[in-house]
């Protein structure tokens, strides 16, 4: 029998151990090569298809009530319905909306509680329209400064509100490959005219769709 020398180890048992080490080394190299190849394929698919972020539009904002009475109270009472359209501009990539919350904010402060949109898949160049109701639900308390600012804007005749959409999306390529989650952040500015621009003059009328008018549909800012 021939005694093999592997790295200074002599004998049959040492030769077997040497072969096992070589085998393990080859398996590790093969696993690393497979992972690198998979990552390379994913990168190539992404670069070739390069999914574009969804396009959002605020089509309408019906304000049914927007009432705050500082300095006596900083509680905000509001009910509104936002009509938001989303379009997938990709010809080869689908979009999963796994979770998305819609809420309204004024100068960076939320003025409604989040409303969850239904889970939805958007096919190639498909479009979806949602019309969720947004309410304060007696849970919104503004800072004294913001309460005064909102009342002053109503009195002046125009109020700028932001409709926000925040959630998680995934990309789908072909019939099987689905990406991990990406954060979706959408901001839709909405200019509301109060009493035909005449303002409230301190009156607490409760408002209504005729009292509060959404000025113009516009595209939203989208970040993925």
From TrEMBL:
<keyword id="KW-0472">Membrane</keyword>
<dbReference type="GO" id="GO:0005886">
    <property type="term" value="C:plasma membrane"/>
</dbReference>
<protein>
    <recommendedName>
        <fullName>Late embryogenesis abundant protein LEA-2 subgroup domain-containing protein</fullName>
    </recommendedName>
</protein>
<keyword id="KW-1133">Transmembrane helix</keyword>
<dbReference type="InterPro" id="IPR044839">
    <property type="entry name" value="NDR1-like"/>
</dbReference>
<dbReference type="GO" id="GO:0098542">
    <property type="term" value="P:defense response to other organism"/>
</dbReference>
<dbReference type="GO" id="GO:0009506">
    <property type="term" value="C:plasmodesma"/>
</dbReference>
<keyword id="KW-0812">Transmembrane</keyword>
<feature type="transmembrane region" description="Helical">
    <location>
        <begin position="29"/>
        <end position="49"/>
    </location>
</feature>
<dbReference type="Pfam" id="PF03168">
    <property type="entry name" value="LEA_2"/>
</dbReference>
<feature type="domain" description="Late embryogenesis abundant protein LEA-2 subgroup">
    <location>
        <begin position="83"/>
        <end position="188"/>
    </location>
</feature>
<dbReference type="InterPro" id="IPR004864">
    <property type="entry name" value="LEA_2"/>
</dbReference>
């Amino acid at each position: 029998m021939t005694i093999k020398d592997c790295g200074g180890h002599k004998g049959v048992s040492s030769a077997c151990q040497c072969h096992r080490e070589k085998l393990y080394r080859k398996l590790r190299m093969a696993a690393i090569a497979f992972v690198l190849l998979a990552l390379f394929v994913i990168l190539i698919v992404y670069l070739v298809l390069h999914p574009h972020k969804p396009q959002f539009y605020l089509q309408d904002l019906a304000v049914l009530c927007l009432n705050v009475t500082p300095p006596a109270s900083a509680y905000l009472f509001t009910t509104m319905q936002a009509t938001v359209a989303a379009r997938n501009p990709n010809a080869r990539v689908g979009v999963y909306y796994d979770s998305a919350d819609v809420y309204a904010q004024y100068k960076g402060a939320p003025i409604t509680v989040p409303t969850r949109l239904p889970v939805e898949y958007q096919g190639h160049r498909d479009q979806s329209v949602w019309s969720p109701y947004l309410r304060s639900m007696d849970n919104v308390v503004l800072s004294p400064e913001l309460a005064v600012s909102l009342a002053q804007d109503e009195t002046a005749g125009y109020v700028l509100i932001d409709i926000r959409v925040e959630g998680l999306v995934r990309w789908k390529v072909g019939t099987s490959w689905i990406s991990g989650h990406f954060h979706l952040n959408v901001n839709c500015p909405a200019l509301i005219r109060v009493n035909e621009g005449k303002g409230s003059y301190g009156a607490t009328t409760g408002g209504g769709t005729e009292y509060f008018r959404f000025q113009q549909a516009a595209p939203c800012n989208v970040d993925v």
